[in-house]
Amino acid sequence: MSLKMKTSKRRRSAWIVGGSLGVLFLFLQLFRPQLCNPPVVAEIAVPSRVRDILRKSCYDCHSNETKLAWFDQLAPASWLVAHDVREGRRYLNFSELGELPAAKQQGILFEAINQIELGAMPLRAYRWSHPDKMVSADDLATLKDYLISTSPQPIAGAAERNATLDQWMAWSHSNARPEVSPAPNGIPFFSDYKTWTAISTTDRWDNQTMRVVLGNAIAVDAIRQRTTNPWPDGAAFAKVAWAQDSDGSGNVQAGEFKQIEFMVKGAAKYADTNGWGWARWLGAELTPYGENAQFTGECIRCHTPVKSRDFVFTIPLETSR
Ligand code: HEC
Ligand code: HEC
């Protein structure tokens, strides 16, 4: 066979392939995913400057007002888009939050802003295909400023400060092992956590809490050995949160005990929940958090942006070996 014949044959087969793909493409368009916009129940109650940002960057997947670009409506992309919208609405629907108590709406907004800051939202493929819908630095500042304005720092009076100081002293000196019920997923309370090592402190910028992250001996050893990704089985973290009490002149002290939460590593034991056991107890009474074992979904979703660090946010300080 001459070279010429070979190329023309190849060209012909390229056309056949191209033509078949074209036909397939048209055929695929017959399968339109079911995607409709149900009525808006109660939109999140925020000022319009905040809503406009959410509308621009989030509403396509997190509201009942999805607006698809023409290229979003072509199969097979349309199937992925429909899937994202369905999943997105399932987890967070700005068209249905408006009737929740204000504090709850603010909590959801806090989580939303966290996801933006961590680069997890909007979804990467969406940012890439819809560059006009990115959250700009100015947008982010607007969202944060609004959220901060909704929870001004309360001023605690002397009596209040003394009461929380007493609570704090009792907490830090008590060695009693309270009988605490296990979390709904069966994880027992770690009553020895006060002997763990402080690894980091953070403050949540929107709701005035102080938090300390503690690690158990296995976690601290892993930090020393630099074997933290993945963390070894048995490594555990506690995150303890207190309110902040401010006296109005810049002095802040730990206030009321809010909650304590734990993550304990067990690659096989907790394989169903991404290799970690998750648990949280609320208030001085240490009431287990969550109605049933499904509460861990909430923890995992928020920790997923740091999946590449084995789901742990805290970056340990460098220590000498
Ligand atoms: C292209 C679709 C899409 C866009 C646009 C989008 N998201 Fe999402 N979002 C999803 C999907 C899908 C999920 C659920 C699965 C996951 O986390 O990947 C999700 C989950 C979330 C969650 C987790 C909810 C939970 O209960 O844990 C938050 C918070 C969130 N998105 C915030 C935002 C914010 C804020 C924006 C806009 C800045 C945004 N998303 C834009 C698709 C989207
Ligand atoms: C709104 C998002 C969000 C949710 C929901 C969430 N976390 Fe976290 N978690 C964080 C962030 C952010 C940190 C990093 C420390 C900080 O900023 O306070 C963290 C840190 C932790 C730590 C310390 C180890 C680390 O990763 O740094 C533990 C333990 C923890 N979380 C447990 C839980 C448990 C248990 C749940 C569910 C009951 C949960 N978290 C739900 C955002 C979240």
Question: What's a concise summary of this model?
Answer:
The chain has 321 residues and is of the alpha+beta class. The chain has 10 helices and 6 strands; from the N terminus they run ααααααααββαββββα.
Order of helices and strands: HHHHHHHHEEHEEEEH
Give the helix proportion (percent range). 25-40%
Tell me, briefly, the overall form.
Answer: globular
Helix count from the secondary structure assignment? 10
β content, as a range?
A: 15-25%
Q: Given the helix and strand composition, which structural class is it?
A: alpha+beta
What does this molecule look like?
- This protein is an alpha+beta fold.
- The protein folds into two domains: 48-149, no CATH class; 158-309, Chalcone isomerase (3-Layer(bba) Sandwich), CATH 3.50.70.
- The chain is 38% helix and 15% strand.
- It has ten helices and six strands; from the N terminus they run ααααααααββαββββα.
- It has helices at 3-28, 48-57, 59-62, 77-91, 102-117, 124-129, 137-149, 158-173, 217-225, 296-303, and strands at residues 197-204, 209-215, 236-246, 252-265, 276-282, 287-288.
- A six-stranded antiparallel beta sheet has the order 1-2-3-4-5-6.
- A hairpin with a 5-residue loop joins strand 3 and strand 4 (252-265).
- The longest helix is centred in the first third of the chain and has 26 residues, at 3-28.
- It binds heme C (2 copies).
- Residues 57-58, 60-62, 84, 87-88, 91-92, 111-112, 115-116, 121-123, 126, 135, 301-302 line the site of one heme C.
- This is Cytochrome P460.
- Keywords: Membrane, Transmembrane, Transmembrane helix.
- The chain crosses the membrane at residues 12-31.
- Residues 22-151 form the Haem-binding domain.
- Pfam families: Cytochrome_P460, Haem_bd.
